[in-house]
Specification:
Two copies of one chain form a homodimer.
Chain A (H helix, E strand, L loop, with lengths): L2 E2 L9 H12 L14 H17 L6 E6 L2 H13 L5 E6 L2 H12 L3 E7 L21 E4 L1 E2 L4 E2 L10 E4 L16 E5 L10 E6 L17 H6 L9 H16 L2 H22 L3 E3 L10 E6 L5 H10 L2 E2 L10 E4 L6 H17 L1
Chain lengths: 354, 354
Amino acid sequence: MKHNFGAGPCILPHEVFQEASKSVVDFNGLSILEVSHRHKDFVAVMDEATALVKKALNVPEGYSVIFLQGGASLGFLISALNMMRESKKASYINTGAWSKKAMTEAKKAGFEVLEAASSSDKNFNYIPKNVVIDPSSDYLHFTSNNTIFGTQFKEMPISDVPLVCDMSSDIFSREINVSDFDMIYAGAQKNMGPAGTTLYIVKDEALGKSTSSFMPTYLDLKTHAEKDSMFNTPPVFPVYASMLNLRHLIKNGGVQGAQERNEAKADLLYNEIDNNPLFEGTVAKEDRSNMNVTFLMNDESRLDEFNALWQDNDIVGLKGHRSVGGYRASMYNALPIESVQVLVELMKQFTSKG
Amino acid sequence: MKHNFGAGPCILPHEVFQEASKSVVDFNGLSILEVSHRHKDFVAVMDEATALVKKALNVPEGYSVIFLQGGASLGFLISALNMMRESKKASYINTGAWSKKAMTEAKKAGFEVLEAASSSDKNFNYIPKNVVIDPSSDYLHFTSNNTIFGTQFKEMPISDVPLVCDMSSDIFSREINVSDFDMIYAGAQKNMGPAGTTLYIVKDEALGKSTSSFMPTYLDLKTHAEKDSMFNTPPVFPVYASMLNLRHLIKNGGVQGAQERNEAKADLLYNEIDNNPLFEGTVAKEDRSNMNVTFLMNDESRLDEFNALWQDNDIVGLKGHRSVGGYRASMYNALPIESVQVLVELMKQFTSKG
């Protein structure tokens, strides 16, 4: 078995792979890949996936759950277009690469973009606390977890203007209060399912209120909310596999259970990083991500040795992003604590050998 | 075995289902669903899928092949935005539901949309031949095959302005001359693969030339051409399954082989429709689609009996679209001629019993 610490697309539960594999050859007598999206068997899949999202996150009445395509990269645009109101000003918390891309698309959508806070002064190694929101902003946008820099909002920002969040890399990993948000969007490929679908959770009151003069049909969330994500052919298999994964989540204690397991994994690895003289974390302790643990090895002369060690022990995906260097251990919901134990043991072993 | 005449998502080759199923549990030691899109094994998949499209369609030098998301419904917008030039006028051939949706999105993109021809006078049961193209049009758009109405362009329209085609439902079913087009786009879920990816074949000269003041990053095809479809996380599994299907196509005589088989299937079924007094086709003979055969049963009193007959014989997906009524036999590349023989035999049997 490989220990998959990849940043995404990433590990999902073994049972999900088994069940999805089976359905590619037999889903009620057909392959899931050849079933019409209008067939009752797939309509049931879409309905269940939607219901499971609502259950897992305690989505209150008055919110729509939508499965689309295009990833967060299209979500940057869709969120901005749909949230445009009178002022055409939008405030963004800049916590690195993904926030910056979101800001770029808001500008392209026609917004005056205001930086409400930024951690660019320290290469985004912390979450800025001093958030200054222009009260005329149509919304405040933030990225709840930053895969590249390994930071995570532990407390969601407090805002008098509508709150919009790109939650791609930590949705379903911890409990959240959906009613704090006007819109949450998330690419599937971390904790929800395989790549190829993008989740939107949007307050119904926020639908159909855009003042954008440019609103193509596919980019209008109202289109998709009214058609239960079936305006056009949805990405059948990614939605199906997401449904299987959400079923698995609910059966295993839901988001609360996942959060407890994620905290235990994070404690285990950060503890080793802090106590092992050869390693150091790159992020301010209070802002460390439970999803993506970024760290450095202090002895450059032994880099090859450490890389060979983890690679020889079936660990994959540990290489850090070029913006930070070093290592990044992504520990999404499906990564078992046993994989983290293997990594920690190797770090101990490596140091004691030195 | 079921005989899947569904209009899409639809039948793919059995071997593709088998291989795709296997890779969901084991693709070089991981699941294809958990492989990073930046891993060399998936980069190789994307490269091969791109190369296979080029090979299958003899795509000449100077064209880019791109895998995106969003279906043709987003393609209506993307094609219009990317093809916008000085005049901001665009000519469309209106052959029914999909053409009309394409025209709507071009208007939303800021075009003055001109109807170069239409078959709306006869509920779109033919392909209009008298195409009048305003020479100042930025492009001429058409839908090569019309799934709902069962019509298909047998000859591509001749145009002095750049030609853009929504080829969703007959790409890879017959030989085409890519150099006639500035842009071809197609949702995967007929002859290319499962739902969840959308193919664009675009002349490089046409990239980056848009005069649209609105050009978000994801909607700009130049973005994706420059990044080899890896600007953001692609829909990994739909691209992978498409690659498997394209491999299967090439191994089985390529597009030329598929075209011969598709013509044989169409001849078989249309011949029965024309010779069986209980059935009649809905489309002008010269414009009949080889992909979607629309037909009516003449004796209303025996509808239930006919429906029971095909359903009892493992045929699925034969119900016609509500806009036409009756029946629609979709016969995409992967549908074996044996399935058509089963249907034709049932039609004969049914009539002889009457």
